[in-house]
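Memo subject: From amino acid sequence to discrete backbone structure tokens
Action wanted: Derive the backbone structure tokens from the amino acid sequence.
How to read it: Take the token row as a discrete description of the fold.
Attached in line: The record itself begins immediately under this heading.
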Amino acid sequence: MLTDLDIAQRATLRPIQDIAAAAGVPEDCLELYGRYKAKVSLAVRERLAHAPEGKLVVVTSITPTPFGEGKTVTSIGLAQGLAKIGRRAFLTLRQPSMGPVFGIKGGAAGGGWSQVLPMEELNLHFTGDMHAVTAAHNLLAAMVDASIYHKNLLKLDPLTVSWRRVMDINDRTLREVIIGLGGRLNGHPRASGFDITAASEVMAILALADSLADLRARLGRIMVGYNYLGRFVSAEEIRAAGAMCVLLKDALKPNLVQTIEGQPCLIHTGPFGNVAHGNSSVVADRIALKLADYVVTESGFAADCGFEKFADIKCRQSGLKPSCAVINCTIRALKMHGGKAAVVAGKPLPAELFEKDCAAVERGLPNLAHCIKIVKRFGLPLVVSINRFDSDHAEEVALVREKALELGAERVAESFAWAKGGEGCRELAQAVVECCAMPANFQLLYADELPLEGKIQALAKEIYNADGAELAPLVERQIRLFEEQGWGRLPVNMAKTSLSISHNPQWKNLPSGYMFPVTDIRPSIGAGYVYPLAGDMMTMPGLPSRPAAVDIDIDASGKTVGLF
């Protein structure tokens, strides 16, 4: 059987100028990065200002197994399927982080016959946006330490500095480090650490910024620590924001590539969905909506993570309004939630997941039911998409189709995106068109005026199915401080596990009858939210015992091998 890489390398790509012309992107708004990828200048928005806007479709998921359930494959297949039924479609997706590429999960270019190309470049250096974010983030970190070293005129308390450093590789040994060792010339020793680039507030800012001026203002609002009087110190006061913006000015431009069937796709920014907001950029969505009948985007992880943040953070800040949602699910994940088998990252899927077991599927349906409830809470019509595998049994699929409609889905469709590309997504595409024609009453979970604790309680009860949130004393004190600073109107971006609706990754299906513990809360004022932390959240992943990197190599002709 052909691998994803085999399929990608055998595909015939069209020059990116042809893709742009067919999509309606003016040639003078393209900045070429080789033959098959280009940046799109933000000037295109002025050229398209009077064009009508298409429908925005957001793809989310049930709570996934550690390997993911093919949400990106489904998103790409949907765009290809829309083209098959005669609709003009555009994709807006996040850029993969190299950490997972070399770790366990793999890339984010789709798979099989529903991929975005060039796949190798997309999953590796691409156009350098990840490196620009890394450089801008670390420039601020260096300038913070330089400010402390050179007389510390801002009176910044080194023990309160919260701005760590980042890199785009999984490296657990850098999670907690001591910096400044080696004597006075090397600065003041203090505890710090590294996060992965996708978890950087700079990445979240890049995805939410609406213009270069907005990007510059947001960077200035980043908070790096406290002074000795207990007041926050910003990147603007460190005088780093201007240089950071210079490093990011090209990264703000979305990247145009193509699907394996030639549909246009803007790949831009890559914030994680568990610790950041988990959505691609606002500017990419705005451009695509002016160029297509339907824009397909995806949010990180499941409905309780990326989708809620898509609505309460991205849409709240940008004014974007989706017309329809798609919930991706698989038979194997429903069986896992039904207690059939434990799925462990780095190990093969248990054989019992491939056995016919309608009872296990039905036991796992509460997870799908809750994800449907979440989407309906935001007022959107929805399609449940069953991402099909050869191991699925017809009786199991029929059960999910029947139950999903009973649970409130307007439509249910099967997706054969991996095996058949757009042709395998005709049913899904038609279902999405029908849902987009239905009335949508998009609304947010909470009002800006609700106090921060009220927002946290709303998330705990309505999204995480808890009896309420239990705030640590530190969190209560921080909330009072944040509200005194005038940050009480900001939305809440909960940092939590993606492997459970709750805070505990071991609690599968639909946990209930518990209190949702919030152990810390931090300001991301540049990104425009505060983020509480629940459970043991890691912002720097580690490599498994056999990372994917060991299989990746290059052959005598210079071709990449072993990449998926």
